[in-house]
Specification:
Pfam families: GvpL_GvpF. It is found in: Gas vesicle. Residues 151-161 have a biased composition (Basic and acidic residues). This is GvpL/GvpF family gas vesicle protein. Belongs to the gas vesicle GvpF/GvpL family. The chain has 258 residues and is an alpha+beta fold. The chain folds into two domains: 7-122, no CATH class; 124-246, Alpha-Beta Plaits. 40% of the residues lie in helices and 23% in strands. The chain contains seven helices and nine strands. The chain has helices spanning 50-53, 55-61, 65-83, 100-121, 149-184, 196-199, 218-228; strands at residues 7-14, 34-38, 41-48, 89-90, 96-97, 124-133, 187-190, 204-214, 235-243. Strands 1, 2, 3, 4 and 5 form a five-stranded antiparallel beta sheet that branches. A four-stranded antiparallel beta sheet has the order 7-8-6-9, with helices on one face. A hairpin with a 2-residue loop joins strand 2 (34-38) and strand 3 (41-48).
């Protein structure tokens, strides 16, 4: 494939596969993705305009949340389509090269890493699990004024201990859940808790984890997560996936020439 009139945007690297991608699939900027073969690897690429993806305009675009969200959705759409037909090794958002030669040079340099990670990810997907707990509601105050300052302080200490105990129980549940799910997965990653102001999710994020699970075991993994939802009705457990194994691609993530 040629990158005449634009740059090469790379979504993922995978092994050659026979199944066809969706006929109407469009990638970043609306261009359909294609396959660039090199030795035993395939890069999934499309052409993007220099006016958006050359180093300087790209730096400006990455500060534009609307542009960034639209680009991320298009990127993820291609990865999702790939996940239905093969095991992709997704590259970072906005991994861009000057031309096909640059992509092949990247694959040549990282071939051993790519093949190693693809062997490890073959037949496996990523599931995400998040756990949220709402702050405990303060207990109702007794009617009337406290009999004394000592009674007031005693009530405050009681309220504080009750609050701390509820959080301790929630955090312990998160720890036990992660251990239980990790035993059913081939690998796991703990990510930093999400900021509620950025994610828009209610409650405090006590667990933000990814699990690498074989496709054959995924149904059992999902059932295990569903069963845990009844164990702690005051805690919200969210399951997402199956995804391409973004959290398990190291050390093969490649940086593009931006």
């Amino acid at each position: 494939m040629s990158a005449q009139g634009g740059l090469r945007y790379v979504y993922a690297v995978c092994r050659p596969f026979e199944a066809a991608l969706q006929a109407q699939l469009s990638g970043v900027g609306g261009s359909p993705p294609g396959l660039l073969r090199h030795h035993g690897l395939v890069a999934v690429v499309s052409t993007v305009p220099e006016s958006d993806f050359a180093e300087e305009p790209l730096r400006d675009h990455l500060e534009d949340l609307d542009w960034l969200a639209a680009t991320a959705r298009a990127h993820q759409g291609v990865i999702d389509a790939l996940t239905t037909v093969t095991t992709p090794l997704p590259l970072r958002l906005a991994t861009v090269f000057r031309d096909d030669s640059g992509v092949r040079t990247m694959m040549e340099a990282r071939e051993a890493d790519f093949l190693h990670v693809l062997d490890r990810l073959e037949g496996r997907v990523e599931w995400g699990v998040k756990l949220y707990a709402d702050p405990p509601e303060p207990p109702p105050r007794p009617a009337g004024r406290p009999a004394s300052g000592r009674d007031y302080l005693r009530q405050r200490r009681t309220d504080t201990r009750a609050h701390e105990e509820k959080w301790r129980v929630a955090e312990e549940f998160a720890r036990v859940l992660h251990e239980r799910l990790s035993r059913r997965a081939e690998d796991s990653r703990l990510h930093p808790p999400q900021n509620a102001a950025l994610s828009g999710a209610s409650g405090q994020n006590l667990l933000n984890a990814a699990y690498l699970v074989s496709r054959a075991d995924s149904e059992e993994f999902v059932e295990l997560v569903d069963r845990t939802k009844d164990e702690a009705p005051d805690i919200r457990v969210e399951l997402t996936g199956p995804w391409a194994a973004y959290s398990f691609t190291e050390p093969a993530e490649a940086e593009g020439q931006r």
